[in-house]
Specification:
It is built from 16 helices and 17 strands. It is an alpha+beta fold. Among the domains are: 108 residues; 322 residues, Kinesin motor domain (Kinesin, 3-Layer(aba) Sandwich), CATH 3.40.850.10. A hairpin with a 2-residue loop joins β7 and β8. The radius of gyration is 76 Å and the shape is elongated. Bound molecules: adenosine-5'-triphosphate. The site of adenosine-5'-triphosphate has 16 residues, from α7 and β14. It comes from Vombatus ursinus (Common wombat). Keywords: ATP-binding, Cell junction, Coiled coil, Cytoplasm, Cytoplasmic vesicle, Cytoskeleton, Membrane, Microtubule, Motor protein, Nucleotide-binding, Phosphoprotein. Belongs to the TRAFAC class myosin-kinesin ATPase superfamily. Kinesin family.
Length: 801
């Protein structure tokens, strides 16, 4: 590059024209100086260049920052624009809410219409009311009712519509407010945007001015550069680079301008969009107004239609009303004739109504007084009942005492005789002739004609052959009652085989004996006392055969049972394993007896067709508990059908029959011993000498009550056995068990004694020798004389006692 400069010759080509040395020296100095100056100038320029470069760099940075800021602002504006577009869309969609306004307007119109309808109906109603009173059945009244209904309905509808209208008003108001808000915001953002644009334009202008200024500056630099180029290629190169850089920066500025233009373009576009949106909103609003106008027109048309319809209906109603009025006139005439009757009826009805109104009060009053009277009566009855109950209890106690006193006075051991009728088994002829007679004045005396000589016996009572089972039972039932009171009772039937023991104790199905009647009586007594006492009745059936005790209700009747003392130390006896059946009805009793019968041992003898050879015992236990006091009682009723007491010699028994008879005689003798010991109040009573007495111990001792039924045959051939039985009975009768005292009154002792001895039929077993002792102070009975005589005679044949 050749840069021409003033004074350039000095530096061009480097050739010297051959000046003399003196002139060359100052020139060199000058050159050195100028070189130095140039050097300085160069340094200064370099510094300026660097400063410019720094400035350029800074400006570049500034421009980049500005550009970034501008870009950010553009982005921001874009976002805002998008937001506004969205807002406008939303508003547009919300403006779809013009439907609401439509709806609201419709409702208002409807409401107005309803209000007018209502007014009209009210006017009609007023008119109807002003008319004369209608007949209840006529059309007019129906119409009136319909109108009233319609009016009510319209009122309800109006109210509903009013409510809905208010809601819609509120909603429209809210939406209008929001629209205004949005419009306000839109305006604000437009103003902001304009401001921003203004600001950006200003800055752009500033930047352009700065660039122009900068462009205007480089002239001296160029000069300097040219100057420097002469001196330094390096400086030249740096200048080139700077220029290139400057070029680049200018390009950059151009690009920025381009971007700015684009942004301005975008801004214009968005402004256009805004304008379009505004135009659309305007259009919508105008459409809205048009629709509103159309709607009003339609409503007007509808209103007219409705008025027309109402007028037509009114005209029809008038015609109908006319007809109704005519009918009404007829009805009124009828009404006038009916009114007096109606008045009478009304009066009657009012009177009845008054009565009906007063009736509950009268009824209540009557009921109250009746209730009070009934309550008083109940109270009186209750107190009477209580008094009666108290008296009843006292009477019961008294009865019990009297009963016991009666039994005590009668004697704790009572002996009753019963003579059976003559049966076909007795046969015919003189042997079957009657040998027994009775005293018509005294039912306790029996006369026996034995071998042509009369013998008399006095017992507690004697039943002749014609006496019934009931007669006999009546005599014993007092004892049975005392068993309920907790006493032990023993009733046993004694007599020769065939004398009627079983008949008296068991009886027949048609004519039951003491056993069944006793249980029936117990049931009825227990029933009577059921309100105060709880009773349980159990039965056991046992037999003593050959001194072996067997349970006739047990599963194994052959098993021999033992009699033992109760382990509780009460001194009571009991039989372990002896079955007890609880009975509550006659059916239960019959079942028990039947079962007992099947197990009982019976054998034939030549004395009777069939005869029991064992003692049969029915043991009834009555356990009671007093509800009020908790007192417990236990009474035992022993009903014993003893084995036949005939003499062994007469029956002609041998072998096992003889053994049976001996056992029977032994046990009957033991019974006699026990009774004798009790009578003579001996310290020791030999209860244990036989199973029978041992088992009956608690029913023979203490305050127990005993009844012996002595069964006798009336016929001549049995007079010896009858005599023995009656003697036994008389002896038993003379024994006392309780505190009372009874003594045998011996009427014809010598004759009897003679008879017995003379007949040689009375045999006394060695075990039954001591009936009485004179040392006890008891009166010497007839039996003791017999014993004495027997001992003297030395006869040892066994007799029952
Ligand atoms: N009072 C009476 N009335 C009618 N018949 C009776 C009467 N007493 C007994 N008999 C009859 O006499 C017969 C013998 O009586 P029953 O069998 O009762 O005698 P018994 O003493 O029990 O004899 P055994 O010791 O053998 O059992 C029976 O046919 C019975 O019907």
């Amino acid at each position: 590059m050749n840069v021409e400069k003033p004074g350039g010759r000095l530096f061009g080509g480097g050739k010297c024209s051959g000046l003399p040395g003196a002139r060359q020296l100052p020139m060199i100095q000058k050159m050195v100086e100028s070189m130095a100056q140039l050097q300085e100038e160069k340094g200064r320029l370099q510094e300026q260049l660097m400063a410019l470069q720094r400035k350029l760099t800074l400006r570049e940075n500034d421009q980049q920052t500005v550009s970034t800021q501008l870009q950010a602002q553009v982005e921001n504006l874009k976002d805002k624009l998008i937001g506004q577009v969205q807002e406008v869309n939303r508003l547009r969609s919300e403006l779809g809410g013009t439907d609401l306004e439509k709806h609201r307007d419709l409702l208002m119109v409807e409401n107005e219409r309803l209000r007018q309808d209502m007014k009209r109906c009210e006017a009609e109603l007023q008119e109807l009311r002003a008319r004369p009173p209608p007949c209840p059945d006529c059309e007019h009244s129906k119409e009136s009712a319909q109108l009233r209904e319609k009016l009510a309905q319209l009122q309800v509808e109006t109210e509903e519509n009013k409510g809905r209208l208010a809601e819609l008003d509120l909603e429209v108001q809210q939406k209008t407010n929001r629209l205004a808000e949005v419009e306000l915001r839109l305006k604000d953002s437009l103003a902001e945007k304009a401001e921003e644009e203004e600001r950006l334009s200003r800055r752009l202008r500033d930047s352009q001015e700065t660039i122009a200024t900068l462009k205007a500056q480089p002239q001296p630099i160029k000069y300097i550069i040219k100057t420097v180029e002469v001196d330094s290629s390096k400086t030249k190169q740096a200048l080139c680079e700077t220029q290139a850089r400057n070029q680049y920066l200018q390009e950059q500025v151009g690009m920025q301008r381009q971007v700015l233009k684009e942004m301005e373009q975008q801004l214009q576009n968005s402004q256009q969009t805004m304008a379009q949106l505004k135009a659309q909103i305007m259009m919508y609003e105008s459409e809205l107004e048009r629709a509103h106008g159309q709607m009003l027109e339609e409503m007007q048309t509808m209103e007219e239609d409705k008025n027309r319809a109402i007028e037509e209906a009114f005209a029809r109603a008038q015609v109908e009303m006319k007809a109704v009025h005519e009918n009404l006139a007829g009805v009124r005439t009828n009404l006038l004739t009916l009114q007096p009757a109606l008045r009478t009826l009304t009066n009657d009805y009012n009177g009845l109504k008054r009565q009906v109104r007063d009736f509950p009060l009268l009824l209540q009053e009557a009921l109250r007084s009746a209730r009070a009277e009934i309550g008083q009566a109940i109270e009186e009855v209750n107190s009477t009942n209580r008094e009666l109950l108290r008296k009843y209890r006292r009477e019961l106690q008294l009865r019990k005492k009297c009963h016991n006193e009666l039994v005590r006075l009668k004697g704790n051991i009572r002996v009753i005789g019963r003579v059976r009728p003559v049966t076909k088994e007795d046969g015919d002829g003189p042997e079957a002739s009657n040998a027994v007679t009775f005293d018509s004045d005294d039912d306790a005396v029996i006369h026996l004609l034995h071998k042509g000589k009369p013998v008399s016996f006095e017992l507690d009572k004697v039943f002749p052959p014609h006496a019934t089972q009931q007669d006999v039972f009546q005599e014993v039932q007092a004892l049975i009652t005392s068993c309920i009171d907790g006493y032990n009772v023993c009733i046993f039937a004694y007599g020769q085989t065939g004398a009627g023991k079983t008949y008296t104790m068991e009886g027949t199905i048609e004519n039951p004996g003491i056993n069944q009647r006793a249980l029936q009586l117990l049931f009825s007594e227990v029933q009577e006392k059921a309100s105060d006492w709880e009773y349980t009745i159990t039965v056991s059936v046992a037999e003593i055969y050959n001194e072996a005790l067997r349970d006739l209700l047990g599963k194994e009747p052959q098993e021999k049972l033992e009699i033992k003392l109760c382990p509780d130390g009460s001194g009571q006896l009991y039989v372990p394993g002896l079955t007890e059946f609880k009975v509550q009805s006659v059916e239960d009793i019959n079942r028990v007896f039947e079962f007992g019968h099947t197990n009982r041992t019976t054998e034939f003898t030549n004395l009777n067709e069939h005869s029991s050879r064992s003692h049969a015992l029915l043991i009834i236990t009555v356990r009671g508990t007093d509800y009020s006091t908790g007192l417990r009682t236990t009474g035992k009723l022993n009903l014993v059908d003893l084995a036949g007491s005939e003499r062994v010699g007469k029956s002609g028994a041998e072998g096992s029959r003889l053994r049976e008879a001996q056992y029977i005689n032994k046990s009957l003798s033991a019974l006699g011993d026990v009774i004798s010991a009790l009578r003579s109040r001996q310290g020791h009573v030999p209860f244990r000498n036989s199973k029978l007495t041992y088992l009956l111990q608690d029913s023979l001792s203490g305050d127990s009550k005993t009844l012996m039924l002595v069964q006798v045959s009336p016929v001549e051939k049995n007079t010896s056995e009858t005599l023995c039985s009656l003697k036994f009975a008389e002896r038993v009768r003379s024994v006392e068990l309780g505190p009372g005292s009874r003594r045998a009154e011996l009427m014809s002792w010598s004759s009897q004694e003679h008879l017995e001895f003379d007949g040689g039929s009375v045999q006394t077993p060695s075990s039954a020798r001591s009936y009485s002792s004179s040392s006890t102070g008891a009166p010497i009975s007839r039996s003791s004389s017999i014993r004495r005589k027997l001992q003297t005679s030395g006869k040892t044949k066994p007799v029952p006692v």
